[in-house]
Write a structure and sequence with these properties.
Shape: globular
Number of helices: 15
Number of strands: 22
Largest sheet: 7 strands, mixed
Strand content: 15-25%
Structural class: alpha/beta
Radius of gyration: 24 Å
């Protein structure tokens, strides 16, 4: 969470305990403050708003310098050989691993993840740079036959220029890494705008990429409020593409604003992901998998399991197992040993999640199970009780994205009804089915309208080389991750040379 102040202005609660200080933006190869000296306070969600650091709060007057540097950096980076680009990405991966302790501690304090979750995020972020660094040795074009005598034809992938990456607070290191690695390998210059709630870890990543050898201007970072700089960020004359991860509301707004401008748009937005448990499922495996998918990271993942659809014949068994599993969840500060989940990102998020729960109960939802908080947690951080609700599909919570540790359960009679229930959503990101029947598994894969689908696996947890992205209001046609990501960050040029 963050608030804007002038340097040297009034201190907020906890400012004397600030542990990180001012972390500056990378612009044209140098680390700079905002021109007007404004800053954003970054706070710890596990406390009553203790400030852990500050970042510059840039305004529109700062952006021309960022984009001008990026335009020049794009020229240099395009001429840089693929193997050299790959070497720099591999250097970045090595530096991430070398600085893992610092990065883990920053994620825990800034975002609220448990140490185990933060450790996984840092490791996977390094893997993105390793993966795309290795891809530098793959062909970036193809030979094309030509009917004309003495003519050699080919298609070449080349960078599109300056790209803007807008990243969210829930995976504050991983999502920038997921976007930066393919964008940079393809030869683009990048302007990175991290979320105002969790900007410090993204700026630390920029520092490491600078150390890894990126030329000046190839990467620039912008911190500040979207309300202040958003319009200029997405309308700058040097901009060629925008990759956005965040809310569906803002993603669709971006799509509309940039339609017809020639600026490419990639959006990874909300989800209302469903897991289905059929009567032949292995419940010993299914229940802990569903619990982890729903409540890990305090449910703050776009792929988190938020709807549970159970075949009626096993409802009693599944309910009993879920009650026991939820009771075993341990809520605590991310540094608490054995914590299953930490706080949500902010008091505002806490209030919004609790409002969703209260509204569902008011509409008739049954509270099946919770993992209670202690009084200290209620008074201090942005903690939310993990909650399992029993609902009917006419309740708002069946369709509204909560983005917190809340799982809503309903029952159906047949596989066909389960597939229909999964598809009963404006979203189409991820889904899962638990079954031993191969026919049911294939019917589910073919029938659900989601971009990611699992059998006997969680709705979460997609690997770096798996193409990732949703359908409907969850995303855009461009996938992230894997080789597919390079399609968004490159354009195809067809060349023909007559040799005689």
């Amino acid at each position: 969470m963050s608030t804007a102040t002038h340097n040297g202005g009034t201190k907020h609660a906890g400012a004397d305990e600030m542990t990180i200080g001012l972390v500056k933006n990378l612009v044209n190869g140098e680390f700079v403050d905002a021109r007007l000296g404004m800053t954003l306070d970054v706070t710890d969600p596990a406390t009553n708003g203790d400030i852990i650091g500050r970042v510059p709060s840039m305004g529109p007057e700062d952006l021309d310098e960022v984009f001008t540097a990026a335009a020049e950096g794009a020229k240099v980076w395009k001429k840089t050989g693929h193997l050299e680009r790959g070497r720099i990405l591999l250097n970045a991966a090595s530096l991430i691993r070398q600085h893992s302790d610092e990065l883990i501690a920053t994620i825990v304090t800034e975002m609220g993840k448990t140490r185990a979750e933060a450790t996984g995020e840092v490791g996977k972020s390094a893997e993105f740079f390793e993966y795309y660094g290795g891809l530098a040795r793959l062909p970036f074009g193809e030979y094309l036959p030509d009917a004309r005598p003495g003519t050699f034809a080919s298609q070449i992938r080349e960078p599109i220029g300056v790209v803007l990456l807008i990243t969210p607070w829930n995976d504050p290191l991983l999502t920038p890494a997921r976007k930066l690695a393919p964008a940079l390998l393809a030869g683009n210059a990048v302007v990175l705008k991290p979320a105002s709630e969790t900007p410090i870890i993204a700026l630390k990543l920029a520092e490491l990429l600078h150390q890894a050898g990126l030329p000046a201007g190839v990467l620039g970072t912008v911190t500040g409020r979207g309300a202040d700089i958003g319009n200029k960020l997405t309308s700058h004359q040097e901009l060629r593409a925008v990759s956005f991860t965040g809310s569906t509301e803002i993603g669709i707004q971006l799509q509309k604003e940039l339609a017809g401008t020639g600026i490419r748009v990639q959006t990874e937005m909300g989800g209302k992901n469903a897991a289905v448990v059929l009567e032949d499922a292995d419940l010993d495996a299914a229940v802990p998998t569903i619990i982890a998918g729903a409540f890990a990271q305090a449910g703050q993942r776009c792929t988190a399991t938020s709807r549970l659809i159970v075949q009626r014949s096993i409802e009693t068994q599944v309910r009993s197992r879920l009650v026991d599993a939820v009771a075993e969840l341990k809520v605590g500060n991310g540094n608490t040993p054995g914590a299953s989940l930490g706080p949500v990102v902010s008091k505002k998020a806490q209030q919004q999640i609790q409002a969703h729960i209260s509204a569902a109960i008011g509409q008739g939802a049954e509270v099946i199970a919770t993992a209670p908080l202690d009084e200290g947690q209620r008074k201090t951080g942005a903690f939310v009780e993990p909650t399992l609700l029993g609902i009917s599909t006419d309740l708002d919570i069946w369709r509204d994205e909560v983005f917190g540790p809340v799982l809503a359960m309903t029952v159906v009679d047949t596989v066909e009804e389960a597939i229909d229930a999964v598809n009963d959503s404006a979203y189409g990101l991820s889904s899962a089915v638990f079954t031993k029947d191969l026919g049911h598994a294939h019917a589910f894969i073919n029938g659900v309208d989601t971009g990611q689908v699992s059998v006997n696996q969680p709705t979460t947890g997609w690997d770096i080389h798996h193409p990732f992205g949703g359908f409907k209001d969850s995303g855009s046609p461009f996938k992230e991750q894997g080789l597919e990501a390079l399609s968004f960050y490159t354009r195809i040029k067809t060349a023909a040379i007559r040799t005689q």
